Amino acid sequence: MSVIFEWVPRPLALLVDGTFISDNETENAKLAYAHIISKASDMISNPSKSDQVLAAISLLESAVILLQRFATFNSPEVISFQAELVTILDSSLGHSTTLNNKLSALAGSGYRLSYLKKTVAQATLGTLNALFTAFPECVTNSSLEKLLQVLSTSELSSVQLVLKITLKVILTTLHSFANRTEPKVIQSTLSLAAQKMLDILDSSSNMDSRSVALVLKTFKELLSHEKMSSVITSQDIAEPLVNMLKLKLMESEWDIRDAVIEFISFLFQQPITDAKIYLALEYELPLLVFERITDNEPYVRATALDALQNLMQSKEGWMFIQRNQHTRRIASELPGMLYDTEAFVRRAALDAIRCLVANRSCEGMVIEAVASSDQKSLNPDLVAARMDDPDSSVIVRMCRLFYDLWQLHLHESEQHKRSRTDNCSENGDTSEYISTFYTLKGDYWIIEATNATQRRVRAEAYDIIRRILNEQSSINTPIHQANAKKRVIETDNADKDAVFLEKLSNVDLAKLKITSNPEHLFQEALDINAEMMIHSLEPSHPGDDRNILDCYN
Description:
It contains 31 helices and two strands. The protein has about 550 residues and is an all-alpha fold.
């Protein structure tokens, strides 16, 4: 019906036979609107069953499209339409109205009446949202007050679907205010709405995780708005919000803690804004993320590690980590996360380690060249276990980590060479440069990944080898140069690099690409001659068809 109302030039002619049709499309829209409103009003005024009230509200929502075709925000039709919706909403709020009395009579029992009021509220709020979206200028302070009243009614706001649509309409209302009112009006209006949202988080100790996530999602939307974000970061709102986040992190339900960590992670996601960064850093919210890396629940640990990645990938977040000297603490804890029983935690831990490597800040991470029982260190045993991980995504991430370590090795070896002068060598300085890439046998595992049973791992190995060789071919200077003045350890590293690159160049990349690409398997299936296969299964003797499938007989 909505499509009919939007596109058909004479919508009423399709609904009612023999009606008067005007040549004016605007007039036709008015006639159709009047007809729909009349039908909906009759169903609401004299309902024989509760379904009629819900059907009438659905008709009203469709009628908004007709309103858009001929009315403006100050048209009498729009004003009366909004008043009708507010009256219906009052019945769900328990106000003494004619409709409320009729709903009580239709529902009978208290439980059915409560359910009916919630359903009516949800439908009415959806229609209000459609109206405010179509006519933003018709939003008034009284409209917002009515919505906040719904939010304050625990019987309604405790229902997830009602809360979701209520917050959606509030957002639509606030956007309307922000786009057409003075900053002072925006601040007072938004402060009131934000305080109400914090109140329901505070008063509803039994609020489920999804409802908490819905409220936090609304705050995300507000923080993403240029004008409204400044109100959220003001002390009057920001402090209660942060206190509420800390309180919710103490909840026994893991998914509530997960929702809070996800909210903090959002503050460091693109697009980065001053308001998001200010809220996160002014109140030291990253510290809450650090505490949850070792949470008892795997999902929370994974979300905290994802948040840590966003933190390290943003300039402001990385500066916070370094300024507060948390780099060593983070680096020391991440290797232990690779022993986690859940694959998604191991994946997130590897991604976080890659962020540290990309930032060239692995200090604090224990890296051992020999097998070790220390679960806080990166060592050959741990690397071998992860390269044989039952989850192929973990192995793929390990391969990417080796590539990052190779890039780090090239950078550090070049830096080490530059820092050493011929004079230092002559003075007997024998400090060695230890490559993490070779310590963890990255050269061996990249080659080994080309023979992996998982196609995804082979494909990743192909990409990494091709990338390394392409990067190396673009370097004009050779890796290994015979120079008597170079220190022995530098020559050894150059030899290792040369051997490693030679092994990579010996890999048959064309064959590896073919075996890593599944398209040829599908092509083989498409190229099968079905008729030939059927005939080849026909028995030569009557008794030979016992093992042939019925579909070939």
